[in-house]
Amino acid sequence: MSHSKHLGIGAIVSFQSKFMHPHILRDEHFQDKPSSHRLVNAVVIRRQQKMINHKDTLCVIIHHDDFVDEDGNLQDLWCAESHVKVHKEGDPAKFFHESIGQGCKEDGEDVDDVENQEQSKNHDHGKRMSIDPNGFDDPLRPREGRDLMWRNVNMTLRTRNKKIEAEKKILDSVWGDVPSKQVTAIMGPSGSGKTSLLNILAGRASSNGNIKIDADIRLNNYVVDPTRIEVRNNIAFVAQDDSLQVTSTPREAIRFSAKMRLPRTMTGEALDNLTEIMLEELGLVSCADVLVGGALLKGISGGERKRTSVGVELVTHPALVFLDEPTSGLDSHNALQLCQLLKRVAQAGSSILFTIHQPSSEIFSSFDRLILLNQGRVMYQGLTADVPAHFEERGFPCPQHYNPADHVMHIALENSIVKLQNSGFFPNDTRKIGDPFKVDEDANRDPLGITISSRGEEKQDPPPGLVDQTYELFKREIKNLVRNTHTLRTRTVMTVVISLTIGCLFWQVADNDFSEFINAQSTFGALLMSLTANIFSTALPSLVAFPEERPVFLREYSTNYYSVVSYFVSRLTVELTVNAVQVTVSTITTYFMVGFHLDYWVLWTAVYLLACASSALGVMVGSATESASTAIELLPAVFMPQILFSGFFVPPALIPNWLSWLVYIMPLTYGVRILLAGEFGGDRCDNVETFPDGTNSCTRILGNSGSNPDDVWWYYLVLLGLFIVFRLFALFVLKKKASKFY
Ligand SMILES: Nc1ncnc2c1ncn2[C@@H]1O[C@H](COP(=O)(O)OP(=O)(O)OP(=O)(O)O)[C@@H](O)[C@H]1O
């Protein structure tokens, strides 16, 4: 089914309740109909409660675009059996309204309340049927739950002011639990430690420098260390700051997550189905094909981005879902819709834990449990339904018609800790928790690296392997490149402008007689400029790209999308291709404009190898730095020495001994030597006039720069070697960083 046509139109089919499988229309019911109409088979109602039972007629609302013509009008719609009523032609919204408001009638009746139709339509999500035999394309697929429990969670910040050391408790003996199949919300005033607690439980914080963290965290009563990457891989975490690929669309982002993390046996159709269900559940259908966007690229709204981040995590049927303020930036309708979806995910078996600010009363009542933090301590912990009574018993009754969420926040903010404590808040942890289960080393280990359950989880096929991961990443990289029009345009224009400038400045200098030293020196200058221009134009994008993509990479890597190797290989492939195009444009321009005499392919190969080594150096520095601005600041420090040691400004022989080794680790040195050997080492220099000392311009330039035409193959090999070393080092740095936290 084409996604591009999605209009989100509700079409209505009505049929008798005696219909064999009221919520499943099967293919055989459409055998005498044109094949396009059989597509209705794929869009049946999945949930009983979505049906509207009117008298003895059952209405099924389906989302389907194939019944809508280009103007959005409902086309002739046939149904399964002869007794099934069929709505024909006309405004689909009108049919929608008629059926909701009037029961499922045939054509006719005027409609005057379009608002109702829209409202109904908005609640009309998730009409697709699972087509995967294992149900992996159902985001609400039942799953084995895991009970998360913690106690004695402490986080201490050590500060030093005017040589006086002090300690601040960010979290103080925090305790709580998130049973499976329940939604638990963490609330509390700003700075009360909500995010800190969530990060600790999700393994995204650990002791370091001034921060000391200790905690007893258990899953199904097995002690776990969530900072271990295997544990974190099993926790779906939606951070406050979205880290999505800016050049992907919500549909692509959700499908990519499903493709990379669900069993490799899932068909493309099942993945599409899952993606569509997720988009519908999250109300993202209307923006499904708009780019996510970012600082430089216009895209979907903040709320839509947030919901996309949620969808990206929920498609994997996680047992533990942590979300940091998932409703921030959402309007009340979308916030409620999201909370209801989370509730259904919990009902499927997950443990849901999220932080939230000022929920509406409707949202508040949708939580099963509440943890109220105040100044790093647990002020309340228990069922949400018990909150009003709990506060009333302690002398803080919730006024009538007042949002209990606002009430508890008001009480927490307006009263001192001492007063609240005296009133009976801040309960001690009185749960009877036995010793943790011991991990049986001989037992089969589950994905968390520990034996969680003796029941043994259902075996499932692994996600895609290295080759598939690389292929998927490669496709995404290509899309990223093509859609990043701003960067692509700038890069192309810069390459052409710089090459033309070099060409004009050094117009045909290499064609002059080298008997004049100045001509040879100018040709050396032209070669050096061609090389350095390519160094900068290839290294700079690599240098800034990684720090920018870092949050996306870290999120994806830490949640098991792919290995560092596939990420690296896919990026490398795209980079090598882009470098090749860029080098070709630049070398063709300069070769003919400057009038070089060396073989064109010598020029191309040397410039290309140097460009690759330079971008590898850029990636290495980019991987090691935290932000694009730091990387750019480092640019001169990394590349200026290359120019200084290239032999143009100071002959290597004159460089002080203690610095001379640097000449040999600079990629530019070898690029320069190859090109000088090509331009000044050929037959052309046989006819050049000699100077009184027996040298000529060619031999002088070769000698001064240390280039020996007999060693050219060595220069190629060293350049290639440097490229490999820089790449491997970057891979190492990346792997090291990725195994840590955000
Ligand atoms: N790594 C850290 N270094 C220094 N202070 C920290 C660190 N992490 C948390 N804090 C401090 O701990 C306190 C709690 O922060 P946290 O972000 O957990 O609060 P919060 O309840 O989530 O706040 P908000 O609702 O405003 O997001 C804050 O005062 C914060 O400045």
UniProtKB/TrEMBL annotation:
It is a multi-pass membrane protein. It comes from the Eukaryota. CDD domains: ABCG_EPDR. Residues 107-116 have a biased composition (Acidic residues). GO terms for cellular component: membrane. The chain crosses the membrane at residues 492-510, 522-546, 576-594, 600-622, 634-655, 713-734. It holds the Pfam family ABC2_membrane_7. It is found in: Membrane. Residues 106-143 are annotated as: Disordered. Residues 118-130 have a biased composition (Basic and acidic residues). One of its GO terms (molecular function) is ATP hydrolysis activity. Residues 148-400 form the ABC transporter domain. SMART domains: AAA. InterPro entries: AAA+_ATPase, ABC2_TM, ABC_transporter-like_ATP-bd, ABCG_dom, ABCG_transporters. Keywords: Membrane, Transmembrane, Transmembrane helix, Transport. This is ABC-2 type transporter-domain containing protein. It comes from Nitzschia inconspicua.
